[in-house]
Predict the structure.
Amino acid sequence: MILPFRRRETGTKFVHPVQPAPRTAVLAPGFQGSRLVRVFASGWTADAARFAPSSIAGPLEELRKVAELGFELRHSVVVLTSNDDATLSDEDREFLWSAFGVPVFEQQLGPDNELLAAECGAHSGMHLVGDFPTLRRDKNTCACGNPAPRLPRRARINELTDLLA
Ligand SMILES: [Zn+2]
């Protein structure tokens, strides 16, 4: 029997906004999979559909394609944005919500797919990930319990880091 050659995955570990992570298909390159997270670097494929994810993560364009195919999700959609993209608009959020009927989370990523800011289950802004020593801790603790400072929705993290520089 010949086993298919599996290249060791390199890339940044995908951090799902909900832990423990559900069965998730990541539709973007540069990520590392795990037991329940499978990476489809070239986007949605028949293999991705066979994987039967209950959550998908990827850039907005990829998620739109999956929505148009009518694929059903049971858990969540994670929109990956970067500093070069526009952040998720209310219209896009509405579109994903009506297409999939599951919670929508945004995550802002750095150039190496590292997580910079992430929306939590309370959906009241994006928690900053990492150290921002000059930034005060959030006085109004988020309903999720995470005290990390938050960016308002649709704020870009690079604007904030410029302010802090
Ligand atoms: Zn929160």
